[in-house]
Amino acid sequence: MFNGIQGSPNAKKSRSRRLSCGFKILQKIAGYCGELTSETGVDIASICCLSECSEEFIKRSVCPEML
């Protein structure tokens, strides 16, 4: 059924970059906000992996009490 169908040769690299970016964003959040204990409903990794986010944006989105 799926013979001859191949994924993009760059798909594995792209997935790896997304995971790496998400991990870096989590490290930034931990540095700015400390340990996270609540869910804000903001998909910060998707937003900040597409374009660089400032410390202020991250704090406003994830831990506004730290401002």
Number of domains: 1
Structural class assignment: mainly alpha
State the total count of DSSP E strands: 0
What sort of overall outline do the alpha carbons produce when their principal axes are compared?
globular
Counted by DSSP, the helix tally is: 3
Strand content: under 5%
What's the SSE pattern? HHH
* Biggest β-sheet strands, sense, barrel: none
Taking the alpha carbons of the first and last residues, their distance comes to 55 Å
Helical content, roughly? 55-70%
Radius of gyration: 16 Å
Mean pLDDT: 78
**Which segments are poorly predicted (pLDDT under 50) over 5 or more consecutive residues?**
none
Describe the structure.
This protein has helices spanning 11-33, 44-50, 55-62. The model has no long low-confidence stretch (mean pLDDT 78). The chain has one domain. The relative contact order is 0.16. Helix 1 packs across helix 2. With 67 residues, it is mainly alpha-helical.
Summary tags:
mainly alpha, 57% helix, globular, hormone activity, Insulin-like_sf, secreted, Insulin-like_regulatory, disulfide bond
Question: What topology emerges from the helices and strands here?
Answer:
Blueprint: H1 11-33, H2 44-50, H3 55-62
Summarize the structure.
Belongs to the insulin family. The protein is 57% helix and 0% strand. The chain has helices at 11-33, 44-50, 55-62.
